[in-house]
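User: Some background: our group keeps a shared notebook of sequences we're curious about, and every so often someone picks one and asks for a predicted structure to add to the entry. Today it's my turn. The entry only has the sequence so far, pasted here. Could you supply the structure so I can complete it?
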Amino acid sequence: MILAELKYEHRPMSRGYTMRTLYVNLSTKEIKIKPVSEEMKQKFIGGRGFDLWLMWNSLPKDRIVKWDDPENEVCWATGPLGASTYYPGGGKSIVTAISPLTGIVIDSNVGGHFGPYLKYSGFDALEIQGKAESDVIIFINGQDHKIELIQVEDSDNLSEYSHQLTQQLTEKYAKDESEKEKQLTSVVSTGPAAKYARWGMLNSSWYNRKRKWASCKQAGRGGIGTVFADKKLKALVCRAPTYDVKKNDPADPEKLLKIGRKHKKEIVTYDPTMNQMRMVGTGYLPDIMNMTDLLPTENFRFGHHREESGKDIPYKREVWFDIFEQHPGADGCFHGCSVSCAHWIKDYEVMTGPFKGEKVVVDGPEYETIAGCGSNWGIWDPKWVIEANFYCDTYGLDTIGVGTGIAFVMECFEEGIIDKKISGGLDLNFGNPEAAIELIHQMARGEGFGVVVGQGIKRLKKLFVEKYGGDPEFLQDIGMEHKGLEFSEYVTKESLTQQFGYGGALKGPQHDEAWLIFEDVVRHSIPTFEDKAKALYWFPLWRTWFGLCGLCKLPWNDVPPPSNFDLPIKMAGELLQAKIPQHVQWYADYFTAVTGIRSTPDDLIRMSERVYNLQRIFNIRQGKGLREHDSNLPYRAIGPVTKMEYKSREKRYDDQLKELDLNIEDKSVEEKMTLLRKYREIQYFKLQVAVYEQRGWNSFGCPTIELIKELGIDYEDLIKVIKPYQ
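Assistant: Of course. Here's the predicted structure to add to the notebook entry:
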């Protein structure tokens, strides 16, 4: 049944913009189109900037908004450079909401076709507010220029499982049964676990002709799928008009085509001898992280595969090459992306749960899933990673939250903080995949200990102290969450820069804001506090820019040209090898070619700086976002918590203490751990001060009024939020 409908006049893109957004209120059934002002476009660019600005102005400003308040929004936007097939990586979108894990804005990037198709249909962003009374579908019909809010009926017989639901809705809403029309239809959905766990995620589909299947990419982080389910959104569906390479109407198509061809050719030429993204995607990373002692193992206690000497890590790229279905040519999540890292497994036979014995398609796994649901659980068998990957996807669960969260529970089980009586009979020792997978099934069924685990580490720590007598200091030390968000899958003990890259991240410890661990630990290119602070200013802003413009970061970062390795390793002024200067300039040229606005690399950073500071102020309005909220990282992110951890790197830690001119000859392991902890926590504090100074924030960690005036965002309601902290 159609609950509401809006017919509209289609407006084609002009220089990357449609200059309007779509608003749907599920409570009032209102559908309307909002204009994008020139000021909004110039100051907030698109993508994450548009999402934040829409939320800032639509959410109540006189109180903290909770994640399950009807006023909370799910916003979805791509940017002016997104939805373009000229340049690799043009299919990304950013989804935002107030997170059920953190209570602040979560931004999660996602591939697939929904974001670009939303733009082809005439909208720079989608804004969803309110709550429906029962399950609904929002159908954006870009071919017939009509928006429909549709009530789901029992007779529709729609599956609760996301992989099945995606196929059903692709078939149902495509204009006809042809593959071309299926390819013009994209579905966003979550699964049953999102109703019960705070790790709910969203699947964004694209119909792949090679696979003859609607595959999905995930907006995983922060529980956006949980908000989606709470609003009783069954799905978003977009049927796009036919696209072509000039659809976003670039200002200089010849220039755009020229630099796009250069970058695409570079990727195809160099990827086979570098990371082999086109063969294994981010599956190349586990082996590298293992070799550099950065692969999270057993709740981040260790950084490498700990089997007997000489035994290879079972997650080498060659293993995934054999497992993934290989196709000649590109296999990307959006048209024109030559990185083509979207890999899949054909005819995987499910081992457990409701699909046991069935052969299914599995999208991925990618690095975070391999590390989170593999090594971090002490599990070294790819088939169990694939099992977890499949069920998390179809149940609507973030594999990073699930991976890090269950790893924490496993350590609590081994430490005797919880037992089988509490776990419902599950033996939750490291290395037990069946028990971990059963927790995932329980989350989907809404029963058992799995539902407790699915509330996230922050709430588990409180529960384990109050109900089961756990030591609060130990639980704080080993509970790998910050701001309420579970850590993504990198061991940061030996990287001070990455420690604050996580601790200072706006949404919580996610690597997409600042991934500097290699520069710190392997290349040693940022040795001083000044170097680290500069990197923690530049990189989060540079990475933010991709989320403003609708671009994937992988073409920039994962296939560097060989010439980049000729650059000096050590930082000199503003030069840092990881910036890949050639690519940075290409992206500035790309922005100029699409929008017609002449831009330099410094201009791109300034674009991000406005949005980055807006999000910081948004967090402050939500009761977080100050220095105290960037502090108190779990100590395991900084150093060894247990004797076993210290002894696993004993020579390294002893040598560091000796370099501090400390006499450790007669010291016990516990005494040495105390000395090391004091030193490392002071280092973190010093870096925090240096980064705030570099960002133009005061000692509270608050943007100054002078800074937001300089950025041109000194609006009265922003100043009101930060004035008490000046």
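Suggested note for the entry: The mean pLDDT is 93. The two ends are 53 Å apart (CA to CA).
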